[in-house]
Amino acid sequence: MGEHMQIGEVAERTRLSLRTIRHYEEVGLVPPSARSKGGFRLYSESDVQRLLLIRKMKPLGFTLEEMADLLGLLDHLATEDPDDPRTVLLDRLTMYREAADQRITALREQLDVAVAFADHLQQQLDVHTRRARTP
Amino acid sequence: MGEHMQIGEVAERTRLSLRTIRHYEEVGLVPPSARSKGGFRLYSESDVQRLLLIRKMKPLGFTLEEMADLLGLLDHLATEDPDDPRTVLLDRLTMYREAADQRITALREQLDVAVAFADHLQQQLDVHTRRARTP
DNA sequence: CTCTACCCTGACGTGAGAGTAGGGTTGTCG
DNA sequence: CGACAACCCTACTCTCACGTCAGGGTAGAG
């Protein structure tokens, strides 16, 4: 529980850059759960988990603000038991899921286009290297 | 051959924004092949093709500068017949192809991660909607 | 000539960081 | 205790690929 590590170790473990981690604090996405007397950022294990979760979200193309919102949503759902505002939360969560689906479709298209283009490049290479080797 | 269209039509046909097309000129990626007396950009059919090709490259994550370079390379290969500097060109082309492959691998990973995350969201939704409906 | 639809430049804003400068902190060793 | 390396801090400017005004000019039909 007193397992606080400083930014360098967090960077290693999450493979995020120091700058990125600091940036996430700047925008309120992942504030370090403590600071040393001297001002060093100190992160807990769950901070690291949060950062790793964010890394997983990144391909979905959400903004940092949206990720903060979504993380808050998930925390809220996990924590709170009274079922009053739950439907609202679930509606919002549903929106994120739909956005994610759309993004996945877009990613698939991008991948196809990318593969097609790479093939095109390879064809150019084939054509021109053959010409050079078998005149 | 006198088939010059202005920026709006180009935007429609390529589905790029006016701003983007202008930006591509700003950085020297696709300068319009002519201007009207009054200063309107006039694009030819092959300009449009170039823009469409650029759109295909976009998922590969090259910078505009790299795309300009690559396009130049392809033009050069298609046009020039003397085979002196060709090996150099082909080497560079090979580098781009390798970069493309790497990027494709990255895209596939991103896609997997994205799908996994979307599933995670869906699970959250399932869990919490079930609780709400079947107490 | 006027009207509308379209276009222009120029300048500033944005998101998500990268990079740099200049300086402070921690913890270990002698 | 002092010295030292390794690590960290803030604050700032820079990047890329555009978006977003603001203010004004152009093309061509009627």
Polypeptide structure, described:
The structure is a homodimer of 135-residue chains. Chain A is mainly α. The first copy, chain A, is built from five helices and three strands. In chain A, a hairpin with a 5-residue loop joins strand 2 and strand 3 (41-43). Chain A starts with a strand and ends with a helix. The mean pLDDT of chain A is 90. The interface between A and B is large, with 37 and 37 residues. Chains A, B: InterPro entries: DNA-bd_dom_put_sf, MerR-type_HTH_dom, MerR_fam. Chains A, B: It comes from Kribbella karoonensis.
What is the C-alpha radius of gyration of chain A, as a whole number of Å?
22 Å
Largest sheet of chain A, in brief, is: 3 strands, antiparallel
Show unreliable segments of chain A. none
Count the strands of chain A? 3
% residues in beta strands of chain A = 5-15%
User: Order of strands across the biggest sheet of chain A?
Assistant: 1-3-2
Distance between the termini of chain A: 72 Å
Helical/strand content category of chain A: mainly alpha
Which chain pair has the greatest contact?
A: A-B, 37 and 37 residues
Overall morphology of chain A: flat
Oligomer: homodimer
pLDDT averaged residue by residue of chain A:
90
The helix-strand sequence of chain A is: EHHEEHHH
Number of helices of chain A: 5
Helical proportion of chain A, percent range: 55-70%
Domain HTH merR-type (chains A, B): 4-73
Pfam families (chains A, B): MerR_1
Keywords (chains A, B): DNA-binding
Protein name (chains A, B): MerR family transcriptional regulator
